[in-house]
């Protein structure tokens, strides 16, 4: 497998999941503005959507959309335990989390990374993110370490990456102690450390 990514962006979740599998894989950075990969390839020829992540599969095909990539990594490496069994309520709960993180939390951060967003717009985005964080904080208030069945899954990898953006967008996570603890636990996993190091985010 080959992961096309942008450092610190949402593909970091897939990068973490790939390290969790313990299997070999390749990565290549993408300049989504220029539309070129690190090796100089036309990225739109690889993924016409133009954004990341994209996962190159062994048969030469390309899989896109973060939630789909994460689930595929989990399902193609069942021994890693990155997702509950298909057909179970726990699996549906994990998909529920993935979909919400992708369509609500991830999306809420958008204006904070978009060039040209006014200060008023950024404040509104921070308020929107805070509302989402309130919901996560309530979920984690029962003492669980991870989102589903108290076992690390690809949904946790995604939540970690998106929640960690708070540290770069003027949002103080200390307001949500359970979420802050979750981010800390996730960041300390060897897979997260390896992925962040590979993307140049930490030394």
Roughly what is the average pLDDT, rounded to an integer? 97
Shape: globular
Percent in strands: 5-15%
Rg to the nearest angstrom? 17 Å
- SSE string, helices as H and strands as E: EHEEHEEHHHHHH
Spatially, the strands of the biggest sheet line up as 3-2-1-4-5
- The tally of helices reads 8
Helix content: 40-55%
Describe this structure in words.
34% of the residues are buried. The protein is an alpha+beta fold and 203 residues long. Strand 4 and strand 5 form a beta hairpin. It contains eight helices and five strands. A five-stranded mixed β-sheet has the order 3-2-1-4-5. Helix content is 51%, strand content 9%.
Write the topology of this structure:
Layout: E1 2-5, H1 11-21, E2 26-31, E3 36-37, H2 43-46, E4 54-56, E5 62-64, H3 66-76, H4 89-113, H5 119-140, H6 154-164, H7 177-187, H8 190-198
Helix pairs in contact: 1-3, 1-6, 1-8, 4-5, 4-6, 5-7, 6-7
Summarize the structure.
With 203 residues, this protein is α+β, with helices and mostly antiparallel strands.
Please supply descriptive tags for the structure shown above:
single chain, 203 residues, alpha+beta, five-stranded mixed beta sheet, 51% helix, 9% strand
């Amino acid at each position: 497998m080959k992961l096309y990514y942008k450092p610190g962006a949402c593909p970091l979740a897939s990068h973490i999941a790939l390290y969790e599998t313990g299997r070999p894989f390749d990565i290549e950075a993408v300049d989504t503005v220029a539309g070129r990969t690190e090796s100089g390839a036309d990225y739109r020829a690889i993924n016409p959507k133009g954004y990341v992540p994209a996962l190159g599969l062994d048969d030469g095909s390309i899989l896109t959309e973060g939630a789909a990539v994460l689930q595929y990594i989990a399902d193609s490496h069942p021994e890693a335990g990155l997702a509950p069994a298909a057909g179970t309520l726990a699996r549906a709960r994990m998909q529920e989390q993935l979909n919400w993180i992708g369509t609500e939390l991830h999306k809420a951060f958008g204006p904070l990374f978009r060039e040209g967003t006014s200060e008023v717009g950024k404040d509104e985005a921070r308020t929107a993110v805070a509302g989402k964080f309130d919901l996560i904080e309530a979920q984690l208030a029962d003492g669980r370490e991870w989102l589903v069945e108290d076992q690390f899954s690809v949904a946790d990898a995604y939540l970690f990456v998106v929640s960690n953006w708070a540290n770069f967008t003027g949002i103080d996570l200390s307001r949500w102690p359970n979420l802050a603890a979750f981010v800390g636990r996730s960041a300390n996993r060897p897979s997260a450390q390896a992925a962040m190091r590979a993307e140049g985010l930490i030394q």
